[in-house]
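Notes on consecutive records. When two proteins share a document, each keeps its own sequence and its own C-alpha cell line. Never mix them. Below: protein one.
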Amino acid sequence: METPIRVLLVAEDPLVRGGLHALAASQPTLDVVAQVSPEESPLAIAARDPEVIVWESGPDPRATLARLPPRDSEAPPSILLLPDGRFAQEAIAAGARGLLAREVSASALATAIGAVAKGLFVTDAVWEPGSSSLGNRPRGGQAEELTARELEVLQLLAEGLSNKLIAHRLGISDHTAKFHVNAILAKFGAQTRTDAVVRAARAGLLIL
C-alpha cells in the first residue's frame, strides 16, 4: 500500500476547516497533517512538510490568492477550492496547480490531490462552458486537433515552463518550442499562455 499523501488544509473559517478535515480524513490515501488559517499557513508549511496544500478561497478569493506560494518556490503545490470559475485564470497565474469546486466530493478531492502530487494540473469539470472566465472549449472541442508534440508542450505549459525550458526538456530548438506554443494558442483561441492552459483544462486535456 502506498504511503498516504501529506495534506495541509487552509481555510479562514474554523467550521470550514473542520468540514475539509472530515472530508479528507475519510480517504485512506490522504494524511491530514494540519488544518490552519491562512495567517498560520507559512509556519505550518515549514513545520508540517505537507506534499499538497488545499486552500478554501473564503469570502475574498483574491486575498487567498495573494497567500499562495509562488510557482517557482520550493513550497508544495496548491489546490484552490472556488465557488465558481471567475477567479480561475488569476488562480493559475498565482501558482495554483489545482482548481476545484467548493462542493467537491471526498473521492474527487483525493484523486485531485494525488494528481497534483505527481506534478499534474487538475481542474473541476462542474463549471459549465461560458459560465465564467474558464472560457469555452477549443475550436472544434476535440483533443485530436492537437498533435502529440503539442500535447507534450501543453503539459509543460501547465507546469509553468518558459519556451526555453520547454525546448530543453523536449530536446528541440527555442524556435520550434515557440512555434508549438503559438500553434496551441491559436487552436484554443487563447490570447495568453495561462488562458490556453485554462481552456485546455476545461476541455479535459489536463484532467485525470
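Protein two starts on the next line and is unrelated to protein one.
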Amino acid sequence: MKRRSLLVLLASLALAVLCNAATDAEAEAAAYWAVVTGRADKIVAVLALDDKAKVLRVRDLVAGYYRDLRDVHETRDTALARARADGVSADEAALARVREEADLRLFRVHTTFVARLSVELEAGQVEAVKDGLTYGVVPNTWRVYREMYPELSDEQRRQILAWLVEAREYAMQGGSSHEKHAWFGKYKGRIANFLSAAGYDAKAAEKQWFERQRTGKTGTP
C-alpha cells in the first residue's frame, strides 16, 4: 500500500513538473511574441497603411518571420553545440551539414515570407519592410556612396546598389544584429575592391566627403 502511495506521489510530482515546464514555455513564447509584435508594429507603421485589417496581417507576417528565424537559428545552434560536446568538433563535414540544413530552412522561411508579403503590399512597400528588418542599411549606405563618389558612372552605381540589395536579402535571414551587419560588411568589402580596381581612392573620397559634410555641401547626385 505504501509503495502504491509512493508511486502515486511520484507520478503527481512528475506531472506537476511537466505542467510547470509547459506553463513556463507558454509564458516565454507569449513574451517573445509581444516583443516581435512590437518590432513589427514599428516597421509597419512606416508604411502608413489605411486598411486596419491589412495592417494586422502584415504585422503578423513580420512578427511571424522573426519567430521562424529564431526557431531555425536556435535549432542550428543547439545542433552545433551538441556536435561539439560529442567530440566531433574536428569533423568539419558534420558541422557543415548542420549549417547547410539551417541555410536551406532559412531560405524557405525567407522565400515564403517575401511571397506572402508581396501579396499584401506594393513592391516599394515590400522594400520598406526589408529595410525595416535590416536597420535601413541599404538606403543609408547607398546615399553615402553616392555622396562620396559623385562621379560614379550609371553602370557602377547599378552594380553597387545591386550588391547592397543582395546583401540585404542575406542580412534579413540573420538571427542577430551582428549577423545582419556582418553580411553588409562582407559586401562592402566587395564594393571597396570594385572601386579600388576602378581607380578610386577610398581615403581621399572619404576625406572629401567629410569636408563636404562640414561645409554643408552634401548634395546627392
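For the record: The longest helix spans residues 2-45.
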